[in-house]
Amino acid sequence: MIVDSAVSELRAVLGPRCVDASERLERYEVLERGPRGRTGLVLLPQTEAEVGEILKICNRHAMPLVISSGRTGLVEAQRPLGEAVLSLEKLNRPIEFTLADGRRYTWSENIVVSAAGDALLAWWESLKRPDPRGARLTVQGGVAVDAVNDWLRPLGLMFPMEMGSSSSASVGACAANASAGSNAVCYGTGAHMTEAAWGWWGNGEAAGPCSASPWQPSPERFAINSLHIEPGWGLLGSQGAFGLITRLTLRTYAIPAQREAALIPVADMKQSMRVLKAARKRFGDRVEEFEFISSSAMDLVRELQGEAFRLPFSQAVDSPLYLLLQVKSDDADEDLASSLYDFLAGDLNLPDEHIGYAPLPALKKIRHSITEASNARMRALGGGRLSFDTATPLTGFGEYLDGLRAALAERAAGTELIAFGHAGVGGAHLHVIGTKEHPIAPRSAELTGLVIDVTLQHGGSFSAEHGIGSKWADEYLRRSPREELDTVRGLKREHDPLNILNPRSFGFDRLLAS
User: Fold this and answer.
1) Where does the FAD-binding PCMH-type domain start and stop, copy by copy (predicted)?
2) What is the C-alpha separation between 280 and 290, in angstroms, rounded?
3) Residue 7 exposure: Cα atoms within 13 Å on the Cβ side
4) CA separation for the pair 342, 77 (Å, rounded)
5) What domains, with CATH codes, occur in the chain?
6) What is the 3-state secondary structure (H, E, C) of 426-482?
7) What is the DSSP string of 11-24?
8) How deeply is 36 buried, as exposed, middle or buried, from its count of CB atoms within 10 A (0-12, 13-18, 19+)?
9) How many Å apart are CA 428 and CA 224, to the nearest integer?
10) pTM above 0.85, yes or no
């Protein structure tokens, strides 16, 4: 699939950043999850103009590309199967910071990225530390989430995308995938946190500015759903299917003056939804996080951490589910801890021994250790694993997980279900783990169909925030309504008619031929 005549033109544009040395290609072939890919060429542009030139050359020669950035995706969209890899990792610098009153700081194009935060802080202090609330930050698309927060934190600001891979995941990919993260219940997805995005369509034409609809959570409709593309959002939420983001302006948010959190044992997901309703009634949009952890997930974290593991309860508590509720306040003088306790002990009528107070980092460590613990369990049992990222409307979320657990118990003997995720927006991460006696591989198709069937029966989506990629392409083509397929096919033919970008994602290699 790599065209020699195209490589010659690309080398003229990129020089040594047109990479074909085998020892440098391996890191683009090995993914965080999924089978190894293969490529003979990696392209490393460091300006937006270079990205545009690459796309024009590849269109002239009909040479397909797979997009790569932080390589943290879980649906194999960045896995090459002979295609060249277009990596945005060098598009990693800040561009401009703009205060609400219009005053702005523009970084030099030659800024050393590690010095960007100090330069911004010095400028802000030279202005006598004006109110930073409502500021906007424009960056290149390959900037990591953690890097953005490192630059913003000294000004009391944040980009509130919280997930386990934030040290590598790029803000451009989070916006393109409409990634949710733990704080989605409060701030929305990466697309909602983006004021505007620019880049290139797959055909080499400039794209943008693109923007998403405002974040408006609703218990009756999806908060996160990768199976549906919003045509009006352009590059945002489109998963790199039609174009790619090279620059974006991010909304920033004030770091709360206070945060308090607690771990709450509950009997089932129906009760969890009642807790969420009560928390919203008491705290409104100050509910910053509402996560759930199944007892099986908690047991794995306990096993992983050994003697260091502690549940924050005054006495032993054994519960089918645990909730991580986090609330915030912009008032440094508010007694937020007392407000949270009054809610838990008064509104919810919980006994003190069921109120799991602990320092926030300790609770977050439990939540963010689940995947690592699941990996260890999978290796120990030796039977493989299937991973799913689903979502359902909040009105049916409680019934959904109970129904899925019952279906697996009845039809998938010998498997373990590990469930955790974003209860505040109906998002669930599901790991189905097999054993040596009951391995996953021989029944992979059956188990995948079972999970997806139950999800759809409850009005859900079998791909919430991680996207379609090539992993879910077959199921996407088989199960999507015809009008959705027609919309996506039309957008692809309009913006990337030669199927240059991510040609196997969404099953475009077949969808465009049908």
Assistant:
1) 35-255
2) 10
3) 14
4) 46
5) 4-87 (3.30.43.10), 94-254 (3.30.465.10), 258-366 (3.30.70.2190), 371-457 (3.30.70.2740)
6) CEEEEEEEEECCCCCHHHHHHHHHHHHHHHHHCCCECECCCCCCCCCHHHHHHHCCH
7) HHHHGGGEE--HHH
8) exposed
9) 11
10) yes
The tokens for 395 are 């009105």
User: What distance in Å separates the CA atoms of residue 354 and residue 264, rounded to the nearest whole number?
Assistant: 6
Q: Is the dihedral of CA 354, 265, 164, 219 positive or negative?
A: negative
**Are 423 and 276 spatial neighbours (Cβ–Cβ below 8 Å)?**
yes
Residue 476 neighbours by CB distance under 10 Å: 23
- DSSP 8-class letter at 227: T
| 228 neighbors 213 (Cβ within 8 angstroms) | no
134, burial (CB in 10 Å: exposed 0-12, middle 13-18, buried 19+): middle
Q: How far apart are CA 208 and CA 214, in angstroms?
A: 17
Q: Which two tokens stand for residue 165?
A: 């891979």
Q: Which residues pair with 262 in a beta bridge?
A: 325, 357
- Structure tokens belonging to residue 254: 């004030």
Question: CA 202, CA 502: separation in Å to the nearest integer?
Answer: 9
Amino acid symbol at 111: I
Per-residue pLDDT tens listing for the chain (514 residues): 798 899 999 999 999 999 999 889 988 887 766 778 899 999 999 999 999 999 999 999 999 999 987 556 667 678 889 999 999 999 999 999 999 999 999 999 989 999 999 999 999 999 999 999 999 999 999 999 999 999 999 999 999 998 877 777 899 999 999 988 889 999 999 999 999 999 999 999 999 999 998 888 777 777 788 889 999 999 999 999 999 999 999 999 999 999 999 999 999 888 998 999 999 999 999 999 999 999 999 999 999 999 888 888 888 888 999 999 999 999 999 999 999 999 999 999 999 999 998 888 889 889 889 999 999 999 999 999 999 999 998 888 878 988 998 999 999 888 999 999 999 999 999 999 999 999 999 999 999 999 999 999 999 999 988 889 888 999 999 999 999 999 999 999 999 999 999 999 999 999 998 7
